[in-house]
C-alpha cells in the first residue's frame, strides 16, 4: 500500500492512503487489518479523506513495514463483516442530515416566498395526517400536538413558524432514527456468532475443523452447552434447544430428527447431528437485529415511564392552550403554549440516552442486551460470583498428574483429554491444552460420551467404563474406590490445587491437579464494587470447602458456599430475591446457567460456555473484572442522566410557557427555542457517560 505520513508523535501516527477515493468496504478492510496487528492498540479509518489514525506500542519501523505490506485483495475478512460494519449506515445518515439542513436554508435564500409557503403548506399535510390518524384511534398523543401546532400556524399564515417546527421535528426524527439504528446494529454485532471450530462428522467419526471450512450439506455434531453454528436440519440425536436469542422465548424447545435448527441457538440438554443448510455470515446478524427491534428488552422502566408521561401530558398542553385563549382572548399567547410541550423532549431524549449508554458499554467490551438491565444493575444491592473462570483465571492449567493404577501418566492424560474435549468448561480446556502441549494425539478412543452438568463425564473405552469429574460424582454417584495401598497417597494430595478424578472400571486411576490461580484484580474489584453500593458480595462454587474457604478469604467476599450444584445457585438467588434484594449473578459455565436466568441481571464472562453467554443479560467481553466496576458506574450515571433530563425538560419548558403566556416571546421564537432545546438535550444525551 502506498501512503504518506501526515503527522506523528510517539505511539501515534496519522497516514494518508494514496488513492483517489476510498470506499466504505476498503476502509473496513484496512481497519480490520490494522486492528489485527499485535502492536496496534487502536485504529480509526476515515473513508472520506482516506486517512487512518493509528495508536501503537513498540517499534514504529515495524508498523510502517506492516502498512507497506497491506493490500486490499490479500485480506480475508470474516463472513458478513462488511455487511454489518455500520460504516455505510453512518455515512448515509450523515449525508441525509447535511442535505436536510442545506435544503432548508437554500430554500429560504433562493425560493420566492409564494413557492416556499406553498411547499410548507403541502409538507404540513404529512404531520396533520399523522395527527388525525392518532385521533381516529381514540388517543391524544404527541402527533396530535405537532399537527395542531403546525396546522394552526399554517391557517394563521405564519408559515415561518410552521416551517421551523417541521424542520426541527424532522432533524429530531432523523437523529433518533440514526441513533436507534446504530445502537441496535452495534448491539447486534456484539451479540453475533463467533464460532471458530466445529465438530464435523466424517465417516461416522467426529473431527474438529475450522468453522470457515464448513459448506452447505456437511454434517456437524453439537454437544451440550454449545452454540449451534449454522442453520440446518437435525439428522440424528435429540436435544432441548434454547432459542431465546432469536425468539425471546426463555423455555427451551425439543428438537429431534427432521426438525430445523438455527444459528445462534444453544443446546441445553442432549446432542444433535445437523446437516448444514446455510453458512452465510449476515443471516445471524439480521435475525438478531429483528429480534432486538421487536423486543421490549431495549426499554428500561424509566424509559417506558417517560413515553407514558409524554403521552399523558399532551391533553394538558392542549387544555392549557384553550384556557390561555379563553382567559386572554389572544391567539398569539395561546399559540405560544401550543408550541411548547414537554412530551417531545421526553420521548426523544430518554431512548437516545439509553441506547447511547448501551453503545458506550459495547466500546468497553460489555454487551448489554437491553436498557432495563442497565437500570437493574444500578438498583442491585447483591452480587453473586461463581468461582472458577470468574474470580479465578479463565485459563486454569494442569499442574501435575497423580497416578493410582500404575499406568503411564501421559496415557491417562491422553484419555482424560479425549473425554473432556467435547465439553465447554475451563477445567476441561485445561486438560485438553495440557495434552496438546505434550503433543498427545487423542483420536476418538471411546464410545458415546455422557455429560452430567456440574458432575462429570462417563463413557466406555475398549470395553471398560471410564468416568472423570468431581469427588462427589466419582466416589458418591459412581461408587468408585481408591486402589488398595493408595489411601495414604490420596490423603497427601496437594491442597492448593483443584482436583479432577479419573476412574476406570470403578477404581481410581488418576487425580489431575489443576492450578486455578486467583485473578490479580479480584480483591480490588470486590473492594470497589462494595464502594459502588453493593451491600452483599457472595461466592458460590462446586469446589471443596478447603478451596472455597481459601479463595473467599483472599478476595474479601461477605459469604461463600462450597460444593454447590446448579440448582443450589439458582435457589440461593431465588431466596435473595424473595427477601427483597436485587441480585446480579456472574458466571461462565453451563452449571451457572440456571442462576444466570433467575437473577435480576445475569452477567457472563465471555471466555465461558456459549450457553452462559446466550442466557446472560450482559456479557463481559474482555478478560478483566474491572469491567464490572465500569458497568456499575455506567449504569449509575445513566440513571442520574435520566433524572437530570426530567428536571431540565420540565424546568426549561415551564419557563418557556411562562414567557409565552405573558407575551414576552412570540410563538415563532417559542417554537424555535423549544425545538432547539429538545435537539440540544438529545445531542447531549448522545455524549459518553464515562
From TrEMBL:
This is Cd(2+)-exporting ATPase. It is found in: Cell membrane; Membrane. GO terms for cellular component: plasma membrane. Belongs to the cation transport ATPase (P-type) (TC 3.A.3) family. Type IB subfamily. It is an enzyme of class 7 (translocase). Coiled coil: none annotated. The keyword Cytoplasm does not apply. It catalyses: Cd(2+)(in) + ATP + H2O = Cd(2+)(out) + ADP + phosphate + H(+). The keyword Translocase applies. InterPro entries: ATPase_P-typ_cyto_dom_N, ATPase_P-typ_P_site, ATPase_P-typ_transduc_dom_A_sf, ATPase_P-type_domA, Cation_Transport_ATPase_IB, HAD-like_sf, HAD_sf, P-typ_ATPase_IB. Keywords: ATP-binding, Cadmium, Cell membrane, Membrane, Metal-binding, Nucleotide-binding, Translocase, Transmembrane, Transmembrane helix. Its main location: membrane. Residues 193-293 form the P-type ATPase A domain. Its EC number is 7.2.2.21. Gene3D superfamilies: Calcium-transporting ATPase, cytoplasmic domain N, Calcium-transporting ATPase, cytoplasmic transduction domain A, HAD superfamily/HAD-like. GO terms for molecular function: ATP binding; ATP hydrolysis activity; metal ion binding; P-type cadmium transporter activity. It is a multi-pass membrane protein.
Amino acid at each position: 500500500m502506498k501512503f504518506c505520513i501526515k503527522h506523528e508523535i510517539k505511539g501515534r501516527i496519522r497516514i494518508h492512503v494514496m488513492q483517489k477515493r476510498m470506499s466504505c468496504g476498503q476502509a473496513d478492510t484496512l481497519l480490520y487489518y490494522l486492528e489485527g496487528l499485535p502492536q496496534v492498540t487502536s485504529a480509526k479509518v476515515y473513508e472520506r479523506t482516506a486517512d487512518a489514525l493509528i495508536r501503537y506500542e513498540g517499534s514504529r519501523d515495524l508498523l510502517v513495514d506492516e502498512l507497506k505490506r497491506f493490500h486490499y485483495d490479500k485480506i480475508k475478512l470474516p463472513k458478513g463483516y462488511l455487511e454489518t460494519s455500520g460504516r455505510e449506515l453512518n455515512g448515509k445518515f450523515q449525508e441525509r442530515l447535511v442535505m436536510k439542513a442545506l435544503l432548508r436554508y437554500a430554500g429560504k435564500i433562493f425560493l420566492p416566498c409564494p413557492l416556499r409557503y406553498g411547499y410548507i403548506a403541502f409538507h404540513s399535510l404529512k404531520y396533520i395526517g399523522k395527527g388525525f390518524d392518532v385521533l381516529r384511534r381514540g388517543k391524544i398523543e404527541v402527533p396530535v400536538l405537532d399537527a395542531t401546532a403546525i396546522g394552526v400556524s399554517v391557517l394563521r399564515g405564519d408559515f415561518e413558524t410552521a416551517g421551523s417546527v417541521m424542520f426541527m421535528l424532522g432533524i429530531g426524527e432523523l437523529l433518533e432514527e440514526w441513533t436507534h439504528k446504530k445502537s441496535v446494529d452495534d448491539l447486534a454485532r456484539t451479540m453475533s456468532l463467533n464460532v471458530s471450530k466445529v465438530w464435523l462428522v466424517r465417516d461416522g467419526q467426529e473431527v474438529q475443523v475450522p468453522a470457515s471450512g464448513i459448506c452447505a450439506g456437511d454434517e456437524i455434531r453439537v454437544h451440550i452447552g454449545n452454540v449451534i453454528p449454522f442453520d440446518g436440519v437435525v439428522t440424528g440425536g435429540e436435544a432441548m434447544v434454547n432459542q431465546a436469542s432469536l425468539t425471546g422465548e426463555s423455555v427451551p424447545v425439543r428438537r429431534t430428527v427432521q426438525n430445523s435448527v438455527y444459528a445462534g441457538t444453544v443446546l441445553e440438554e442432549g446432542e444433535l447431528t445437523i446437516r448444514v443448510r446455510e453458512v452465510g455470515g449476515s443471516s445471524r446478524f439480521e435475525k438478531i437485529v429483528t429480534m432486538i427491534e421487536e423486543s421490549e428488552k431495549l426499554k428500561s422502566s424509566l424509559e417506558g415511564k417517560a413515553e407514558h408521561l409524554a403521552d399523558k401530558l399532551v391533553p394538558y398542553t392542549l387544555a392549557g392552550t384553550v384556557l390561555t385563549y379563553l382567559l386572554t382572548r389572544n391567539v398569539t399567547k395561546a399559540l405560544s403554549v401550543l408550541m411548547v410541550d414537554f412530551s417531545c423532549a421526553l420521548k426523544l431524549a430518554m431512548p437516545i440516552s439509553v441506547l447511547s449508554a448501551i453503545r458506550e458499554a459495547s466500546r468497553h467490551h460489555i454487551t448489554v442486551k437491553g436498557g432495563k438491565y442497565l437500570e437493574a444493575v444500578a438498583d442491585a444491592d447483591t452480587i453473586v460470583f461463581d468461582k472458577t473462570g470468574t474470580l479465578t483465571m479463565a485459563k486454569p492449567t494442569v499442574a501435575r498428574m497423580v497416578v493410582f493404577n500404575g499406568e503411564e501418566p501421559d496415557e491417562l492424560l491422553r484419555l482424560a483429554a479425549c473425554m473432556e474435549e467435547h465439553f465447554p468448561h475451563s477445567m476441561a480446556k485445561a486438560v485438553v491444552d495440557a495434552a496438546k502441549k505434550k503433543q498427545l494425539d487423542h483420536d476418538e478412543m471411546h464410545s458415546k460420551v455422557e455429560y452430567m452438568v456440574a458432575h462429570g463425564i462417563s463413557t466406555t473405552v475398549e470395553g471398560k467404563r471410564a468416568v472423570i469429574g468431581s469427588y462427589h460424582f466419582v466416589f458418591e454417584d459412581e461408587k468408585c474406590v481408591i486402589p488398595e495401598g493408595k489411601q495414604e497417597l490420596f490423603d497427601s494430595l496437594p491442597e492448593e490445587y483443584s482436583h479432577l478424578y479419573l476412574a476406570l472400571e470403578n477404581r481410581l486411576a488418576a487425580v489431575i491437579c489443576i492450578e486455578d490461580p486467583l485473578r490479580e484484580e479480584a480483591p480490588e474489584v470486590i473492594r470497589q464494587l462494595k464502594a459502588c453500593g453493593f451491600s452483599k458480595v457472595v461466592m458460590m462454587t462446586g469446589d471443596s470447602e478447603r478451596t472455597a474457604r481459601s479463595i473467599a478469604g483472599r478476595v474479601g467476599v461477605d459469604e461463600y458456599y462450597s460444593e454447590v450444584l446448579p440448582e443450589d445457585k439458582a435457589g440461593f438467588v431465588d431466596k435473595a430475591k424473595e427477601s427483597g434484594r436485587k441480585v446480579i449473578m456472574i458466571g461462565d459455565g453451563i452449571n451457572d446457567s440456571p442462576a444466570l436466568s433467575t437473577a435480576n441481571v445475569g452477567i457472563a464472562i465471555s471466555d465461558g460456555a456459549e450457553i452462559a453467554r446466550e442466557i446472560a443479560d450482559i456479557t463481559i467481553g474482555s478478560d478483566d473484572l474491572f469491567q464490572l466496576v465500569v458497568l456499575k458506574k455506567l449504569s449509575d450515571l445513566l440513571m442520574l442522566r435520566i433524572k437530570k433530563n426530567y428536571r431540565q425538560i420540565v424546568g426549561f419548558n415551564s419557563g418557556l410557557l411562562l414567557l409565552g403566556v405573558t407575551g414576552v416571546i412570540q410563538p415563532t421564537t417559542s417554537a424555535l427555542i423549544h425545538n432547539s432545546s429538545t435537539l440540544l438535550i438529545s445531542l447531549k444525551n448522545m455524549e459518553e457517560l464515562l
